[in-house]
């Protein structure tokens, strides 16, 4: 929930149920030559050998040691990001950013590195939830400073320089998200949202090149959830030594007494998560509960394909844990299988997955069916929410492509706005990634409105249903 709020804080503020049009004053602009003259991610030809993480961690240390004082920094920067470009105190901001110059050099080197490996996977495999993420908040802080640098460069009239900083920011977003945990994906999406907001400022500059093809060239979806989602499962199995191997092997042998003791780690997790009906349950009561579900759990494991003689010989705790993770894998895959589908195709499947998740949670709370140890209810986040957050980001990119397509049309028609998106012939207007249908575009006097369809079942806001008011300056 906290990380969802981190993402939403990076979007245009509006009250719940209120969509405030984002006014963009645009100038006509034809496609640059070559078409990808201003890429928004570093090209392979521009990369340097090495691991991006080395540079990012060095940047974090430089910011701590030599950067602007941390106390009051966030409030100061936040204020500078909110004022108009004309009101930005450039001399003061320039002096402030000068203290970050060495840090920025390391971030730029990280963005252009050939690979990015945070080294988390083996940690999750071995120690599960005990893995620390010390870099995550610092990377978001660096992204906020990149935002300020972009605004300063735009205020100084250095538009091409600002595009280069944007390129660094977009690469940073994908690198932060490329870790085996959903928390990292959420922060990556939040950083991408910051960059999109700055891109909306950039395309309003009189000398802004048209970035339609650069936006089109971005990966779709922009943030890949495969590794973060799979990392959640890796981490959860890592909480229970030996369980992953036993779950993967249908001929797994019964646990030894030592393995049973290690598997009892679930007690601490239950207390930590504070599941309502389980948080106050003592060890003796849990043992009784495990015993009461033992025969039912054994039947499910045998149905899975495990030899009956091996299941019969397994300790009660091993049977309970394997039964729990059998449910975990089934419910996890219900959401995971949808994440590569277009959102409008995934939505009905995600709704069904959420219903099954709620049933599993109710069973855990009410002790009414299901596994004795409700690992799924305790540990797994609602993966469908992650998919919604990601598609909000992709929708913003698609809307910006439409806006740049409008600027292309205006350049070929004496600054005139197209009467419909279908009038734009030189660059296909993308569909809304939420609905699979064209964005709502209409002329209103001397301007145009580009509107998104609200998410099914959600209250519209600027965060999930942006509306753009486009004014083409003559």
- The helix-and-strand class reads alpha/beta
Number of strands: 6
State which percent range the strand residues make up: 5-15%
Give the helix level as a range of percent: 55-70%
Physical arrangement of strands within the biggest beta sheet = 1-6-5-4
Instruction: Return the average pLDDT rounded to an integer.
Output: 87
Anisotropy-based shape: globular
Relevant terms:
474 residues; alpha/beta; 4-stranded mixed sheet; two-stranded parallel sheet; 21 helices; 6 strands; globular
Reconstruct the topology from this structure.
Blueprint: H1 2-9, E1 22-27, E2 48-51, H2 52-66, H3 73-82, H4 90-98, H5 101-111, E3 113-115, H6 121-127, H7 136-155, H8 159-177, H9 182-202, H10 212-216, H11 226-238, H12 243-248, H13 257-263, H14 266-273, H15 283-292, H16 294-304, H17 308-313, H18 316-336, H19 343-366, H20 375-379, H21 383-412, E4 440-444, E5 447-451, E6 467-473
Helix pairs in contact: 1-9, 2-5, 3-7, 4-7, 5-8, 6-11, 7-8, 7-9, 8-9, 9-11, 9-21, 11-18, 16-18, 19-21
Summarize the structure.
This protein has 474 residues and is of the alpha/beta class. Helix content is 56%, strand content 6%. The N terminus is likely disordered.
């Amino acid at each position: 929930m906290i990380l969802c709020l981190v993402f939403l804080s990076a979007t245009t503020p509006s009250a719940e149920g209120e969509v405030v049009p984002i006014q963009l004053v645009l100038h006509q602009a034809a496609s640059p030559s070559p078409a990808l003259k201003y890429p928004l991610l570093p090209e392979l030809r521009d990369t340097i050998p090495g691991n991006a993480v080395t540079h990012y961690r060095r940047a974090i240390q430089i910011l701590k040691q030599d950067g602007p004082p941390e106390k009051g920094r966030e409030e100061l920067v936040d204020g500078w990001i909110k004022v108009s470009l004309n009101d930005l105190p450039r001399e003061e901001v320039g002096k402030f950013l000068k203290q970050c110059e060495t840090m920025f050099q390391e971030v730029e080197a990280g963005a252009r590195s050939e690979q990015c490996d945070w080294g988390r996977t083996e940690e999750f495999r071995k120690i599960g939830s005990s893995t620390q993420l010390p870099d995550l908040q610092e990377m978001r802080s660096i992204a906020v400073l990149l935002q300020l640098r972009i605004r300063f460069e735009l205020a100084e009239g250095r538009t091409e320089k600002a595009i280069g900083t944007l390129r660094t920011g977009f690469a940073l977003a994908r690198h932060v998200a490329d870790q085996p945990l959903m928390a990292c994906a959420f922060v990556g999406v939040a950083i991408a949202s910051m960059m999109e907001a700055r891109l909306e400022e950039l395309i309003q500059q009189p000398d802004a090149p048209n970035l339609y093809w650069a936006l089109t060239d971005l990966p779709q979806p922009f943030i890949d959830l495969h590794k973060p989602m799979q990392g959640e499962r890796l981490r959860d199995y890592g909480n229970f030594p030996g369980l992953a191997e036993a779950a993967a092997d249908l001929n797994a042998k019964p646990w030894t007494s030592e393995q049973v003791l290690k598997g009892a780690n679930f007690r601490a997790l239950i207390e930590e998560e504070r599941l309502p009906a389980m948080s106050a349950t003592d060890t003796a009561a849990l043992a009784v509960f495990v015993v009461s579900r033992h025969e039912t759990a054994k039947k499910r494991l045998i149905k899975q394909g495990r030899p009956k003689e091996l299941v019969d010989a397994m300790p009660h705790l091993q049977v309970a844990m394997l039964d729990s993770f059998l449910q975990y894998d089934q419910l996890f895959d219900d959401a995971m299988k949808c994440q590569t589908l277009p959102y409008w195709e995934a939505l009905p499947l995600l709704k069904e997955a959420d219903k099954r998740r709620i049933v599993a949670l109710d069973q855990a709370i009410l002790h009414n069916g299901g596994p004795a140890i409700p690992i799924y209810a305790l540990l797994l986040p609602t993966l469908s929410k992650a998919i919604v957050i990601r598609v909000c980001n992709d929708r913003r990119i698609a809307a910006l492509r439409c806006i740049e397509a409008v600027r292309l049309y205006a350049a070929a028609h004496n600054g005139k706005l197209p009467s419909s998106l279908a009038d734009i012939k030189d660059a296909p207007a993308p569909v809304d990634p939420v609905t699979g249908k064209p964005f709502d575009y209409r002329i209103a006097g001397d301007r145009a409105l580009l509107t998104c369809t609200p998410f099914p079942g959600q209250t519209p806001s600027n965060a999930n249903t942006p509306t753009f008011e486009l004014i083409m300056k003559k």
